[in-house]
Amino acid sequence: MSLAPVSAAEIQLLRDVQPQQVVRARREILSEGAVVEAPMLLLSGWAARYRLLMDGRRQILGVVLPGELLCHQQHRGPVALSSAVALTDVVLSAAPAADRTGNTAGLEEAYAVSAALNEHYLLQQIVRLGRMSALERIADWLLEVRERLLAVGLVSGNAIHLPVTQELIADTLGLTSVHVNRTIQTMRREGLVEIRGGWVTFLNVDKLRAMVDFRAPTFTRS
Amino acid sequence: MSLAPVSAAEIQLLRDVQPQQVVRARREILSEGAVVEAPMLLLSGWAARYRLLMDGRRQILGVVLPGELLCHQQHRGPVALSSAVALTDVVLSAAPAADRTGNTAGLEEAYAVSAALNEHYLLQQIVRLGRMSALERIADWLLEVRERLLAVGLVSGNAIHLPVTQELIADTLGLTSVHVNRTIQTMRREGLVEIRGGWVTFLNVDKLRAMVDFRAPTFTRS
DNA sequence: CGCGTTCTTGACTGCTTTCAAAGATGGTGG
DNA sequence: CCACCATCTTTGAAAGCAGTCAAGAACGCG
């Protein structure tokens, strides 16, 4: 097993073996505070973790892409730290357990790397929200999504499938959908990306990277 | 051992047993990308995790309080996901290892809870930065710090020691120090808190909680 | 007591939000 | 195959929260 995320071939493998669960788009996958029996592996589709404020404001904590885990934190009385919703139809499976018997060392290692990646992305999300302009947030986020999709072989040429509305991007990046729209148009005008019909084409990755000082995590390909 | 954070008594215990390391205020504790041998337990003092942008902008990812761990993520080729700096003089010790031999089950459990708490606070930080006003961010953050200090017995009456500048609060909450100053003055005028000489007195915790819908994590006292 | 750091204040700028409404898009049923 | 409807995207004008720049006051330490 490669270091996380899980490769397409491995997903296919798991798809055949493990019990699966299908959730339709817009349906809730789990609810903050709910008891979670086991980590869930996202076999296909997009999901999002979020928290709500009492007045209805929503913050997307991060998106969950194919091959990624939904619940990293496991402990006695395991409780979901956030809600999660399916952005598209998704297929989930219970992630194989890493028991302590010793013959799942590779699996444990994969989970550890996955947890580290998870934290890395949470930290980067904090940096985006705290210290980046709208333009930088969108650029940095798109580059991160591309990076994560690359890891599971879901980037075709310079294009990725981005099955989310501008309102979801807004709730992810702490903006309004109106401002996301205007900022994306600026990016289009500058020849950075093309965004149409749920697909994003990266026209100038280098310029984007330079704009936000984008760095991929260093420990993935060790 | 109680569920994390580690209690004052336990800190005292570890203080006597484990090898320690002292770092002076303003000194760097660890650097993003550096190899980390073992998790570090903060025995006393305040620290902060942060990331920098190339142009000098700084985002504090979170503060580290006495009794809390500095590096949760462990995996092959363990690399620090963020830099960390001592905000006051601090005392650190290597956290006792949770080997897989079986007789450290309690310790492992404590680390798991600690990791979950860590993620909970990161998620709340994302919500603050993404969807809260300046006033709400400061109120919510102060309540969280109070909650975490309560867990280690460092709240005397309604007051806590807050050894940070307004500029650090600004870098934590994605604001400027000028705006933090103005917002704190609003809170003073409204009789919410008193902030003077590194001490914060909570004059109306209930009103603060209502302002931000503050909820403590549910799984700590299980 | 002197100096550097931190806090405070004022005036002005500007990025982002808000409110509203007009297009575009895509899926569904007649 | 096309009309229809819900959802999503786009646009405009005005308001507001937070940032910037600058300078003076207060604080703490040696």
Q: Report strand % of chain A.
A: 15-25%
Main beta sheet strand tally, sense and closure of chain A? 4 strands, antiparallel
Tell me, what's the shape of chain A?
globular
Q: How many H/I helical runs of chain A?
A: 6
Largest interface: A-B, 47 and 47 residues
**Kindly, what is the distance between the CA atoms of the first and last residues of chain A, rounded to a whole number of angstroms?**
14 Å
Q: Please bin the fraction of helical residues of chain A.
A: 25-40%
3D structure, described in words:
Two copies of one chain form a homodimer. The first copy, chain A, has 222 residues and is of the alpha+beta class. Chain A is built from six helices and ten strands; from the N terminus they run H-E-E-E-E-E-E-E-H-H-E-H-H-E-E-H. Chain A has helices at residues 8-17, 105-131, 134-151, 166-173, 177-189, 205-212; strands spanning 20-23, 28-30, 40-44, 47-52, 58-64, 83-86, 90-94, 159-161, 193-196, 199-202. In chain A, the strands form three sheets. Chain A has a four-stranded antiparallel beta sheet with strand order 2-6-4-5. A three-stranded antiparallel beta sheet of chain A has the order 1-7-3, covered by helices on one side. In chain A, helix 2 packs antiparallel against helix 3 (134-151), helix 3 packs across helix 6 (205-212) and helix 4 crosses helix 5 (177-189). Chain A is globular and about 55 Å long. Chains A and B meet through strand 5, helix 2 and helix 4 of A and strand 5, helix 2 and helix 4 of B. Chain B binds a DNA duplex (30 and 30 nucleotides) through helix 5.
